[in-house]
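DM from R.C. (forwarded with permission)

"hey, sorry to bug you on a friday — could you get me a structure for this? deadline for the figure draft is monday and I only need the backbone to look sensible"
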Amino acid sequence: MSGPKTLDVLGIGCNSVDYVYRVPAAPRADSPTAKLRIHSHAVSCGGQTATAMAAAAALGLRAGYLGAVGDDDNGRRLRAELEQRGVDVSLLLTRECASRFAVITVDNATGERIVLWDRDARLNLAATEIDPGVVARARLIHVDDEDQAGAIAAATVARELRVPCTSDIERLTDRTGELVAAVSIPIFNEHLLPELTGERDLERALRKLRRSHAGMLCVTLGARGAMLLDGDELIVEDGFEVEAVDTTGAGDVFRAAFICAMLRGDAPRAMLRFANAAAAVSCTRAGAMSSVPSRQDVEDALSGAA
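My reply, with the result:
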């Protein structure tokens, strides 16, 4: 399909309404933290890909979102939140069911969180709902691994059209290998790589994946930063030290900033540094979409660390 690109990035995947509860410590059975008084609570919008697109828009990209919400108050909340944040929601679908939601506990001392979620199967995207014409109008496609059929279809179309496709891959299923193969630039959570490759050492895991995948391979390391295999060169960038308030959405913000830096032509190491800074800023704020930084926020963090 010819014509100008209308979006810098199109995200295809998960959205969520998050019920966030801040507690004094991480809950653990058969311990003093088995029962905890809630310090505070809030309702906010999130979800891996929806948050990444909100962050992409905040960083100055023309971002669009394709996914499904329910025909309930939460679905209307998600649509309004994305639209208010400058994300193109013209492709957002509405199903006759409840929207996806998550209950998130946040450790008040460390900002680390535990996520419990539920999602109606009617929210799944079918492969037939991925329009190649829509994919062709984006400079880059971003997918997650919650709705794998839709993600694989989108990544496959993107590969056929030579549109770059990044990912958020954090769980191992019988289709994970297929998704990794379809995505041109996979970005993994660190706990998944040993499961996927059988290699506990992350560098060895990335190099093992290199045998079957020619694209850049990236793994996020939480507060420790990120690692990227570019060709045969391993690039490691440390994270930024911040006082974490809430780590919810940090990985999604990392991916949005990685995409932003890649689309503007940054070198791989600079891409990681920019993405690490963005993720660090998001950890100093509560919530998922409510934590996304602007480009100036990220530049300020980079300047302060220089």
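R.C.: lifesaver. The chain has one domain: 7-29+38-305.
me: no worries. DSSP finds ten helices and 14 strands in the chain.
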